[in-house]
Write a structure and sequence with these properties.
Elements (H helix, E strand, L loop, with lengths): L5 H16 L6 E2 L5 H4 L4 E2 L14 E4 L1 H13 L1 H14 E7 L2 E6 L2
Helix pairs in contact: 3-4
Length: 108
């Protein structure tokens, strides 16, 4: 039986896609683990996509855990859910999707 190796087959290609598009000084909201690929000074882990922090990154990097957190927000936090939905549908556009990884870029 072959191993899935989702790290090499799914995560690393998504992280590489993002890293190729990041310009100097641009920030990302994503998992803390992403910092190992794109730099600790560029990544903020923010489940609420800036609702509380006011962060306005150039990119969002979402994985299964991020999606589970967003699902929780949508079910249990109506004010934050409206904000998150607006961010994902109006402020950003999906530029990469592969299995459980999605990369969004801010619309200018």
């Amino acid at each position: 039986m072959a191993r899935l190796d989702t790290y090499h087959r799914n995560y690393l290609p998504a992280a590489a896609f993002l890293q190729q598009r990041l310009a100097t000084g641009q920030k990302v909201i994503g998992s803390a683990a992403l910092a190992f690929q794109v730099g600790f000074d560029r990544v903020t882990h923010d489940d609420y996509l800036g609702f509380y922090s006011g962060q306005q990154p150039e990119f969002l990097f979402l994985d299964d855990d991020s999606q589970a957190g967003l699902d929780y927000i949508r079910r249990n936090r109506p004010d934050q859910a409206r904000y998150v939905n607006r961010v994902l549908s109006g402020d950003f556009r999906l530029i990469y999707q592969h299995n459980s990884y999605e990369v969004y870029q801010r619309i200018h």
